[in-house]
Amino acid sequence: MKYLDLFLVLSFTALVCTSCNPAQEQQPEPLDQTQEAARIHQLMDGWHQAAAQADEEVFFGNMSDSAIYLGTDKSERWLRDELRSWSARFFERDTAWAFTPYDRELYFSDTGRTVWFEELLETWMGPCRGSGVLTWAEGQWKIQHYNLAMLIDNEDVSEVLEIIQQPDVRPDSLPGSQ
User: Fold this and answer.
1) CA angle 38, 66, 98 (to 5 degrees)
2) DSSP string across 62-90
3) How far apart are CA 80 and CA 64, in angstroms?
4) Domain spans of the chain?
5) 33-161: what fold?
6) Vertex 107: Cα angle to 59 and 28 (nearest 5)
7) pTM of the shown model
8) Is the dihedral of CA 31, 35, 38, 39 positive or negative?
9) Minimal CA–CA distance to 128: which of 103, 94, 156?
10) With a cut of 50, which residues of the chain have pLDDT below it?
């Protein structure tokens, strides 16, 4: 009987000890950065092309449900569906807007499942920079965050400051903003 009691106590102790240890979280295999870089360039080029062709489904389909888009105006911070509502009139045209990327750099996380990027763009506003974050989920890349910024040469900053400090100038009154 003593052996049975000892066996039960040791079995119970082993059970308690193993149940108290949290399961080791299994890290996903890192993605191949060379292969994924090609997929990301294709996705981003296609995303810009979708805007140029007013393809709303592809444009917004490449963004995660919780994606954030920051435009050039200080008021332009949209969640994906807010951007979709605001831009609906642009996607009714032949071209929503045409931004042509000509240089892009990618930066991968250790697992390769998060990517930060920056790109230069030719736009109707002149040269711009886009930057953002893509995440890998359910076997595909999605744009999680995008920030569009106009590029201004340092020697032109004084002129730009004069314009933006005028209280009567609104972004929707600038040429080409319609």
Assistant:
1) 55
2) TEEEEEEEE-SSTT-EEEHHHHHHHHHHH
3) 8
4) 33-161
5) Nuclear Transport Factor 2; Chain: A, (3.10.450)
6) 85
7) 0.77
8) negative
9) 103
10) none
